[in-house]
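Support reply, case 0932

Customer input (verbatim):
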Amino acid sequence: MRAQSDARAALAVGLLAAVVFVVLAVLVMTPIGIAFDGAVLGGVQQTATPPVVAAMGLLTRLGNEFIIVALPLVLLWLWRRRLRQQAVEVLIATLGAQLLNDALKLTFHRPRPSVFVSVIPGQAFSFPSGHAMVSIAFYGALAVIGWRVLRGRARIAWLTAMTAVVFLVGVSRLFLDVHYPTDVLASWAGGLFWLDVTLALVRTVAARRASSTHRRRRPNPIGGRPCNNAR
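Our regenerated output:
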């Protein structure tokens, strides 16, 4: 019952995230979306003092350079701890989010708020934010792992830390004037949807493999030996 309840909750979250992304993708092309982005960016720029911008420049690295370094280390640690399913989840969630973001940028071709030069195809475009999408996929996967293995205050502290990192990375993109608010919001929704899909797919494959292994090893009720279902 608990597993079924968790599965339904995950499905609801994934569907809600998909709906939010679609709504934002439509809004960015409307006067309402443009007015919202302009109002928020105007307020952000009023508080974007040089020290704040410098701090945001450091925080934004948590959504790109830090993940590039941390990802292989996290995968190695999980593999050595025999948390191999979790390692696969982190890998697929992170790399898949980056590929999905590249495809979406090339689809929408939304210009950035300021001039941005990139040698990577698609990265010169604004919608959605790659930093925000990849960070919610990577740190979100780590949050899920923490939810499974930690208890009590440690669990709450870990979830709070992962949520704060994702939020700060997204906000930093606004202060650096490289994304619109709707870029970031849509990235969080799209990244959450991709994370949900990844977790569901990996768990489904793992469950089927475990079920198949169990059937192969099932004792023969007559001879007491495992049945051979390969014939």
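We compared this against your earlier run and they match. Two observations from our side: The helical segments are 2-27, 31-46, 50-59, 65-80, 84-108, 130-149, 152-175, 181-216. Residues 117-121 have pLDDT under 50 and may be disordered. Please reopen the case if you see a mismatch on your end.
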